[in-house]
């Protein structure tokens, strides 16, 4: 039953999660933390952090980690938990795969259509809003924002935006700053 729920939930997330992984985060949290209770808010926050640092899209990475953790938390073995990862990852990718096949067939015909262009213009600001909502979602009681966190945020923002620091180097520097400031 859990595996069918995982498949259905991530199929739904993949189908309605427009705007990429960050835009999906609020939908993912609503499903896996609030509705199903498969993982805690703290586990969700940790999974998001790990998903950001590992290569690949955050939506797929989080599906993989959450699929594993949800099955592990249900009391299954590591081998069975890996199956949960596979099911969640496959389900979140399936709608995009099918939609890309369909869209690629029709997009060449309609890419200059004024209605298609208008739809994309409407989707852009909505996507930015969803990403902002995902950022605010991570600010909760379990992720208390103190002065040290704000300092790391401001430093990271300036170094990546103004000085174009590479994201991997920024993650490394932020980790070192966290060790120094919180140890």
Task: Describe this structure in a few short sentences.
Helix content is 80%, strand content 0%. With 183 residues, the protein is mainly α. It starts with a helix and ends with a helix.
Q: What keywords describe this structure?
A:
single chain, 80% helix, mainly alpha, 183 residues
pLDDT averaged over residues:
87
Strand content: under 5%
Helix content: over 70%
**Rg measurement, Å:** 19 Å
Written as H for each helix and E for each strand, in order along the chain, the element string is HHHHHHHH
Largest sheet: none
**Structural class of the helix and strand makeup?**
mainly alpha
Number of strands: 0
Quick one: overall form?
Answer: globular
Number of helices: 8
Low-confidence stretches: none
* Spatial gap, N to C terminus: 43 Å
Structural summary, described in words:
There is one protein chain. This protein is mainly α and 183 residues long. Helices cover 80% and strands 0% of the residues. The protein is built from eight helices and no strands. Helix 2 packs across helix 6. The chain is globular. The relative contact order is 0.12. The model has no long low-confidence stretch (mean pLDDT 87).
């Amino acid at each position: 039953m859990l595996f069918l729920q995982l498949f259905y939930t991530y199929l739904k997330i993949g189908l309605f999660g427009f705007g990429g992984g960050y835009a999906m985060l609020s939908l993912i949290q609503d499903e896996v933390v609030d509705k199903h209770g498969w993982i805690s808010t703290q586990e969700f926050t940790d999974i998001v952090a790990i998903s950001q640092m590992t290569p690949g899209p955050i939506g797929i990475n989080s599906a993989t980690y959450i699929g594993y953790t949800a099955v592990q938390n249900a009391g299954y073995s590591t081998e069975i938990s890996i199956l949960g990862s596979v099911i969640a990852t496959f389900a979140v990718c399936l709608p995009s795969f099918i939609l890309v096949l369909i869209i690629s067939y029709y997009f060449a015909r309609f890419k200059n259509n004024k209605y298609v262009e208008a739809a994309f213009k409407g989707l852009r600001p909505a996507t930015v809003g969803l990403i902002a909502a995902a950022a605010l979602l991570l600010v909760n009681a379990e992720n208390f924002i103190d002065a040290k966190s704000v300092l790391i945020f401001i430093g990271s923002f300036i170094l990546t935006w103004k000085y174009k620091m590479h994201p991997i180097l920024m993650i490394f520097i932020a980790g070192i700053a966290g060790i120094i400031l919180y140890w």
